[in-house]
Amino acid sequence: MKFLLLLLADPTRLDPSDYVGFTFFVGAMAMMAASAFFFLSLNQFNKKWRTSVLVSGLITFIAAVHYWYMRDYWFAIQESPTFFRYVDWVLTVPLMCVEFYLILKVAGAKPALMWKLIAFSVIMLVTGYFGEAVFQDQAALWGAISGAAYFYIVYEIWLGSAKKIAVAAGGDILKAHKILCWFVLVGWAIYPLGYMLGTDGWYTSILGKGSVDIAYNIADAINKIGFGLVIYALAVKRNEVEVV
């Protein structure tokens, strides 16, 4: 039934007062524009930095496609597209972890760092989905596992081997690494908060319940586009230095 409603939906009739639908629409357009910017700028970089900018474009492009679909889903059904949001995250969040490795690779980072960050990001997302959509009566347990994986990523990039490599590299690489760390610590914090608002657990009596689709949509656009712009700025600086 939901699929039929989705096929029959007319997104051109989106109600101007539907702020959730509006943020889905704006998010899709913003991330598509960012993708075009990153892809069209590739030729100005040497091979060493081109991959990093390409990944930034892939992150926003994947998100743009999902957001366009989620906008139609919301318009047709008026339900939070939880499944499709997690599909987006399970593709884009590991790629954001790859970005840490790519900028630190020039300073000697090993692939093991990348795979470690990817593994914990997948654990964070899969367990988060289990708690939010599959085992809702055990949401607090699955949320705790997801949160532990998130805090491990935070530890690794702020205090662990990733931080040590960034400090050893210094300069522009260290500055970019710090900014990306802040995105993970502050920008990603909206996601566990949204999880708690959308599920039942010990935290419900403190936070209450509510829809955070608007916050999710805004945070997604800021985090993904922001990540890409940090990588782009670093690539421009390093490209100029290496050309000289």
Summary tags:
244 residues, mainly alpha, 11 helices, 0% strand
Short description:
The chain has 244 residues and is an all-alpha fold. Helices cover 80% and strands 0% of the residues.
Description:
It is a single chain. 40% of the residues are buried. Helix content is 80%, strand content 0%. Residues 3-8 have low confidence and may be disordered. With 244 residues, the protein is mostly helical. α4 (82-105) packs antiparallel against α5 (111-134), α4 (82-105) packs parallel to α11 (213-243) and α8 (171-185) runs antiparallel to α11. The chain has eleven helices and no strands.
Helix and strand element order: HHHHHHHHHHH
Poorly predicted residue ranges: 3-8
Topology, number of strands: 0
- Considering DSSP H and I runs of 4 or more, what fraction of the residues is helical? over 70%
Shape designation: globular
* N→C terminal distance: 61 Å
Mean pLDDT across the residues is 88
The gyration radius over C-alpha positions equals: 19 Å
Number of helices: 11
- Structural class determined from secondary elements: mainly alpha
In what range is the share of β-strand residues? under 5%
For the largest beta-sheet, the strand count, sense and barrel status come to: none
Helices and strands in order, then pairings?
Layout: H1 2-8, H2 19-40, H3 47-77, H4 82-105, H5 111-134, H6 139-158, H7 161-169, H8 171-185, H9 190-198, H10 204-207, H11 213-243
